[in-house]
Amino acid sequence: MINHVYVIRSDGTILFHKTYGTVKVDDSLVSVFLSAVSSFAGSLAEGEIKSVVTGRLKFVYTGGLGRYKDYLFVFCADEGDDDLGLRERLKRARDSFIEEFGLRALSWDGRDTSVFEDYVVSLEKILMGIIKIALVGFGGVGKTTILNLMRGTDIPLDYNPTIAVDVKRLTGLSDRYECIVWDFAGQERYTPLWTFLLRGTNIVLLVTDSTVENVVETKKVYLDIIRQKQEERVLLTLCLANKQDMPRAMKPKLVERLLGVPTSAMVAINPTFRDQLMEIIASAIDEWARTVEGAE
Predict the structure, then answer these.
(1) DSSP string covering 74-98, please?
(2) Per the confidence metrics, is the pTM higher than 0.70?
């Protein structure tokens, strides 16, 4: 969660500061950090975004563009928050401020910060949130094909294994959230990355090829990793029993019984399954949001 948002000048003067949530931050720590960062903000390449972790907090920051290079835009977030999502929102927050209040900032006398209060309206639209959806499963089960089905793009005829991770934005699923889908490589050599890549995930779509062997191995390897993450944050896990068109495919109800995870049938190479897939994801987002709101 983003706990604080700052817009400051390179001399350390704060133009805008908004606090969210209940996480308290050591004011002296923030003051020292912002002063230090603002002193070298000018050394950032134009448009460059950096992040640094201090304790359980992550500061993500970027300088302004063009004649606004002497301004610094900072998010103070939880250490485990998705870095990609934070950077994307910070970029939008920076661009929005410059567009709406840039000229006002250049002529500001450094006294009355209320002239920037209306920025909170645009900011909160940007901060509504990002849902990180992870496609998890062994190589060859159809994760990338499912991602293509989500996006409505052509499904490749040949199998090309994902290298490490592929990240795509998914539109049209929620009015409240931006959806980012991470397609994790399933080859054994990437095993050490799985725990790291799941950081900041909100929804896991566990993909199997619906064979007995694959479902058993999926339970043995993946569920322990996912449960560890569930202890750290609200994490919703669903299973997609893919390749239901194959002769040896296990029925979704049996897969669900073995994994203990809600399971839906899927044939990712069949475009007619797209509507069903999008309904599954949209429902998962709604369920995740209700769970988070109930936990607060």
Answers:
(1) EEEEETTS-HHHHHHHHHHHHHHHH
(2) no
